[in-house]
Structure formats: structure tokens, C-alpha cells
Specification:
The chain is α+β, with helices and mostly antiparallel strands. Helix 2 packs parallel to helix 11 (344-358), helix 4 runs parallel beside helix 9 (263-286) and helix 17 runs parallel beside helix 19.
Amino acid sequence: MYQKNIGEEACHKTVIVLDRGPKFAEDSQCVNLIKRNEISSVVPNQFRDNRNANFKDLPIHIKDETTQGQPPEHMGTIKKTLWNCSIEAALEFHRVVTDLFPNGSRQLRFVMSDFVGRALTKSWAETNDLISYEELIDALSTCDVPNPKSDATSFSVLTGIALGLEAISEQSSLQKNIINMDPTKRRHNKKRRNTTRAISNDPTTFKEEVEYWRHTKRIDPKTLSRNQRLHEDGELAEKSKSDGLILTNKGNIIVFTSFNKPNDFNVIISDLLEKVKSQNQMVESLVDANRLPIDELFVYIVNISPNFHPEKYGKGNEPSIVIEDLDIPPQKVKATLFNCQAGDELNSVILKILLDIYDLVSTTVSGIPMKEESNPGASISYDVELLHRRESHLLLKTCGLLEKGSQLIARKDHGNFDTVKLKWLSPSQKLKSEMFPLLLDSFPATPAYVNSREAVCLTSFIVNNNKNVMLKIENPPETIEPNLCGNLISHYITHEEATGVMLIQTVAFGPNATLYGKLKQQEKEGIKPNLNYTSFNQLMKSMGTIPESIDSDTEPAIEENFEKAKRSTSYFPASLKDTFIFNIPEKFEPLLTLIPKSELTLEELEKCRKWIYSFIGSKNGSEPFTHKILDCNLLKRTSTRDEQFRVAADEMYKFLRNFVKNSPKHLEICNLFAKLLNFKEVSPHELEIVPSLTGSESPRNRDQRSSSPLAKRSKKLAPSQIWGKNEVINLYEYFNDLYEKEHNAKWRDFVGREKAGDKNPAPLYPNLNLTPATSDPRLNRGGISG
């Protein structure tokens, strides 16, 4: 949801109405055990008379760090009224909104209802800054505690609801900015005003319009979210927005009250509908630039009763939360009634309303290891519930992990909503940062019960200790591959250092996700992302030539470059999938840069030698060349150090053999590498060094270009310039010399003499016995007789 249209959503403006009637002075019979950094709703049995009787006053125990091993210090007792519970619920609502929407795009206002309605916050914030906690406490401190002896007939929650409707009709600063940027959205547009009256006052026309759009567009109302729904039809809302050129004004009113008669709810709704209608008519007639008609309103009535109330429910019949929904299409009002008890049920109702208004979801971090003071050597696992935006679960839903009956979904005890349970994954030294999957989105998160001991420990661990937490999916389906060391990581909890806000980040997984740290490359026309561009660039640079003169014949240079290209590409992986060393070229420098050169200096030769010795020495190391999971056909997905070394050595040897004919120094480097790693060495006699590639008469390579002017080559001599005038030529001797030169240039000595040299030539017939046969007695008699 973009900032520009948040002003048109119901979540933008919310008014909380607090009933301060005498009924709220009643004891809630719900007490909290308060310790330092801990608030728990669990009441020990010793503070109860029986299950259905009132609780005794609960002593407050404060435990300090200096009193370790000693009983907690008794500081006093506490009793909570329904007024205390409603104030705590309002503060908790404010805390969650502040944590999840720190930019102030979701505005809150507080109204108190007693004899007359009183606005605790005068207007919407001018700078989109939500009212601070301190300002809210100061405003609430001006309210007196409800008096149980006051006349109940003098108090009415309707006065506070009337003020809430006036607050919803007021323009917020964001809505004012939208109107200033787009004057067509002003509400005194005559066409829009008439359309509003027609829809509001004629239910038949409205119903026909809804049915028309529902059937022609084939909309399933169940697929529409609450923020898209207008009288259970989102298409009509989009139509009115596009055709009317208007700024829709929506809002929420949350009423904390207490009543016993079921008819009281109907009275509240009837009065509210009348006030909405009259409020809209007044705004339309006055054409007030600072007010807007109410297009859509969501009302939440929270009916709070004391905990374990025996008079109302009877023994053993304590109720759970009862929710009643009521839609009034002509008035565009949706009302929801929550009947709940003070305590845990009220807390769950607040969470339910938060999830509904702000489109939030719940995630429970399970299996958090924590140590107990009573048993420091043992560790117990706890769960912590977090609230955050729904978009964080989008990938889970896309992969089918949140279907009905999924093992990840758990139902809350009192909240009538689901939570997604993800497992805590303890950090490990083996998890390298470059192996971590891609993070897709990041959203603020906050604990559902911020004062619980478990939530305090988790928040302190992440925010104060600068730690991070990974959340994994237990027993994932086989169709989804793990994305980190055999685990399927779905989320990552961290915090923003600048603001201290806790963040929940979505981790990429699934068949269509980019895994293993590989970023998605932007698709560009004509570019292949898996080509070995490094080798192609080196080849083009090495093949570039400059003729010695303009008049020179370039055919020999082209032929020489063609032969050189054939040698240089005898091993040439064009795709990165077919190579390992070119996927991480920084690990194999300077060889990848120096070896393709035509000549090597002594300094470059020494650099190559040092790298080879360093490469051999790293054979027995523990760390692999890279932890990245490369898309390489030569390696397995999870390769070891030994496998990476073997593949790198084989590939480097093939690479060095490409350039052994460039110069004797290239041959020396290749043979040094081959000798140390037991590869076949290249003999100098096996090579045919092309003189023109290394001589001064060859076209110069681009990497050997100098600033000196090019020397002109002599032109070919004509026959008249070779022989003198009147010179007699013996054609036999002339052609004989040409033949001998051509024959001697191609002549090759006996291979045995080449290998052994002139001093120790190899025998032509090694098996021939040349020793004299003196042992034969017939030779001594002068011959052999017939």
C-alpha cells in the first residue's frame, strides 16, 4: 500500500472511546503478578478463595538483581477495576500501532465518555506523527477514576461515540495533502454529492448496483479483503472512486464499554446510524473544507465484564469470547460486538481488532531456549508471539504452506484468530554470511504480549545485544528444497540500528525463488547472464594486432592470429556452468591475467611462481575456495575443499597449456605447475614455436603498444633489382638452392638424437648385438667345414 492512498483506507483513522461510567469502578477480579521486567496474568492458587469467588488483593513482589537467591521483596497490594483494564487495553493498542507504523500514517485519537463526551486528543496530528506514549499518559491522567456511587443514568457512552464520528469526519493532514495535490478529489463536487445521496437513501438502487457489478465482473466476495470491501462488494468501491473523482473517507471506532442487556447493543447501533446520517448531511450542506462525509465506518464494541463473574454466568460456565457481526449496507457501516472478560480474553480481543483493522498477522517463535534461575544448568523452551504485516506471510501462502490443516497454523486460545508457528534456529559458526539466502522484504514486528518474560528476553536478545534470529519451517514438504545447510529458513528477525525497531525479514525459498545469495540479474536484450565474459575479453585483447606499416601485407598476421586463436581456445569454457575458476577469478589471480600475455617479464614470472607455490600449500587447508553454491557442472551443489581443489587444479592445468607456445617462460610456468601436481609435463621439442610471434618482424600485440613511431618495412624487391645488369644466372643452382632452403626448413632430426643430444645419441637398433662372437670354437679353426 503506497503512502499516497493510505489516507483513503479505513486503517488511516481510528478513534478509541473509553466509557467512564460507574460500572467501570467495579472490581475486574483480574489481577496481575508484577515483578521487575515481568507481568503475568497467571494468579497463584494461594491468592484465590475458590474458582468462582473474588480474588484477594494480590501482593506486589519486586525482585532486584542485588537480591539474587533471596525471596522477592513485598512492596504492597494491587486491585484492578474495569477502568484499569480498559486503559491498559487502549495503551496496548497504541503501543502496537506505534511499533508497526512509526511513520505516523495510521492515526489515533482518544475520546472519553461520561456526563458528556470529552476529546482527550484535540485533533489529528499535523505532521503525521502519532501521539506519543507520554502525551497519551498525560491526557489520560486528567481523567478521574470512575465513582461507583454516581448515577448510572447520567452517563452514556453515546456522547463519546458522537465525538468519535466528528473526529472521523475531520480531515487528517495526509488527506489535506492529497486534496491539495489533486483538487478533483474535493468533496463539494456536485456530481459526487448527488451520487452519495442516491446510494445512501435508496437501498433498492444500491442493491441493484451491487448485483450488477457482482455478476458482470464475476466477483467472489469471499476473496476480497476487508479494506477492499464496500458493503461486501469491492468492485463498486473501485467504480465510485474512478468515476466520482473523490477522496473516500473511511475510519474505525473502538468502544470500550460494559452492559448486561443484549438490547443495549441495538440501542448503540441505532443511535450510531442516525448520527452517521445526520453527520453526512450536515457536512454536505455546509461544504466545510475541513470535513468529509463518512463513506465507510467500522465499529468495534468491546463489552467488558469482570473475570469469573458468578452472578452473570453461573458456576462453571465461564464464557469464551462471543463475536457478533452486523452489516448495514445503506449506511455503509459494519459493526462487531465482542463480549469478553477482563484479563486474557480482553487482551486477545485487542489483538483480534488490531489484526482486522491493520491487516496484520501473528507469528509464534517456538522453541526459544532460555535458562531458569532456579536451575541454571538446564534450558527450557518457550514461545513468543509476534505481530507484523500480512505481506511477510505471502511467500508461505504462495508455496501452499498455509492451507487449511497445515501443521504451521495454530489456533489461539481466546483470540479467534490463527498464528503461524515457526521454529527457532540457533546460530551456528558454520553458517557463513555469503551462503545466506536472499532477503526479499522487511517489516517492523512487535511482541503481542510485550511485558511477558519470554518477550522481554527475546527483545533484549535482538535489540540490546545486537543478535539475529533465524526461523525455520519444521518438517517441510519434499517439494520445497532446503535453502540453508539442510534447513528451510523462511524468516529472519533482526533490528534496525538507527531506530532500534525490531524487523522480521522474509527469506527467499521455493522453486521460483533466487537462492544461495545469487541476486536476480536484470534481463537485458542481447546479454546472456551465464557467459564467461572474462575469457572472451582476454581473447579479444590478445588477438588484436597493429600492422607495421600501411603498405605491409596483413595476410601473414591474420594467419598467425588464426593459429594463435586456435591454440588459445583449445580449452575455452564459453559458459560459466562449464568452469569453476572463472566463477571466482579473484582466487586465481594473477595467473588468469598474466598468462594470456604474449611475453612475461621476470617480475611477472616470479609472481606466477609464488602463486603456484601458494596454491600447492593450500591443498591441505580446511577452508574451501568459496562457500557459494555455484551453478557449475564440474562440482556438486555442496562441494568440499578437496573436490574444489581437484577441479581447480585440472582446469588450471588445461588453461596453462593453452599458452605454452607463447614463450619459453610460459612453458616453464606450465611445467612447474604440472611437476608439482603430477601432471604430464610439456617437452620443448613437442612445441613448434612460431618465430614471427616473438620476433621483431611480427605485428605487435595491442598490449605491447609503444609510443615510438612505427618502423617502415622494406618493399618486396623486383627481379630486376635482385640480379645485376647482364648477370648470367645458373637456373639449376638457383632452383636447387631454393629447394634446399625449403627442405632444410622442414627437416627434423632423429627423435632419439633430439632427446639425447649429440654427446649421447640413442642407438638406431637398440636390440642389435654388436659384440664379437669369440666363444664359437669354429671361428678359432679358421671357419666352418661343410
